[in-house]
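Hey, sorry to bother you again with one of my protein questions. There's a protein on my desk that I can't quite get my head around. No rush at all, and the record is pasted right below.
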Amino acid sequence: MTFSPETKDLARSLLAYEAVAGQTSEQVESAAVRLFEKLRVPFCALAGVAGYRALLARALALARPEAPSLCVLQITADGCIQGLGKLASKSDQHHTSEGDVLFTAQLLGLFLALLGTSVTLQLVQDVFPNLTVTTELGTITPFEDILKEVNQLNSVSDRLESLADQNPSVEDALMSVSGNVRNTATALEVLALIRSKAASRKRERRSKDEGAI
């Protein structure tokens, strides 16, 4: 899988943001370690631990040919990464290697392919609320765009269920991921509808207030 230059730019931005955040704290882990740990929580909630781990393993396999140093990494059963960002001294703790960028970009690329732009960027924005995500990938546009992604998620869930029927050896894992994806679609749909109605009521009140002036 070849990711776009914009995906790589997003990966660099996230790592750079985390590196700067680490400089103002007592963090001793590398920016890459902190970034992957922050992304792990919402993505595991979305795809399930098994699904997230599978995507992480795929991203690592895709990144290794261009960054052989990643061969030392191992992925634990709960989706954590061992061996990432082992640093010789504190002065190096905020260094971001090209391998870190490639690994991050591959993972983001997989989620963009699976979930679509709006949902992926919304998840990133939830993890980094103070970071403005502005890339050629698109912008975070709530409500209507999220509802479009809901339809895509439901389609993904349908395809996973079909694959489960065709692959009995991994049927349980695929059905688990499918269920998590469909539950996320439902939650996003409810959230978008609630927020959309709230925004509509707010606009109506503003219009009435302006009309009364």
Observations:
- The CA atoms of residues 9 and 135 lie 8 Å apart.
